[in-house]
Every structure is written in structure tokens, then in C-alpha cells.
Design brief:
- By secondary structure, this protein is an all-alpha fold.
- The protein has a single domain, classed as Histone, subunit A (Orthogonal Bundle), CATH 1.10.20.10.
- The longest helix is centred in the middle third of the chain and has 28 residues.
Length: 69
């Protein structure tokens, strides 16, 4: 899944008056996609260990606690 450059640009604009280039937005998107895959992998594994097929918010919270995010 690809995070769009326009989504990144909206986030940057909402949090500052700065503009962001397409290449910078793309770099942020790639970084976020990589982190999202790591979080999803952890959450799915944790849900499975707990006998669930559905990932819950608690699985994401557990990732945050474990990795200090």
C-alpha cells in the first residue's frame, strides 16, 4: 500500500506553514510505510498468540510500549 504524497503534504501543511517538495513527501511516505509494515507484523503476531484473527488497538498499544513509540 502506498501512502500518497498529497496525504503527507496535508499533514505537513496542517502542522506548519511550510511547503514540502514531492521528493521529500515521497521520502516521508516510504519511511511511514516501512514503520507501518513493522507495526502490522508485530500486531498480527501478537493477536495470533492471543488466539485472535483480528488485530485490536491493544496490539498497537503493546507495540508502542515495547518499542517506546
Amino acid at each position: 500500500m502506498k501512502i500518497s504524497n498529497s496525504a503527507i503534504k496535508k499533514i505537513v501543511k496542517a502542522n506548519s506553514n511550510a511547503n514540502i517538495s514531492d521528493t521529500a513527501a515521497n521520502a516521508i511516505a516510504k519511511l511511514l510505510e516501512k514503520r507501518a509494515k513493522e507495526i502490522a507484523k508485530y500486531a498480527v503476531k501478537r493477536a495470533s498468540k492471543n488466539g485472535r484473527k483480528m488485530v485490536r488497538e491493544e496490539d498497537i498499544e503493546a507495540y508502542k510500549v515495547k518499542y517506546g513509540v
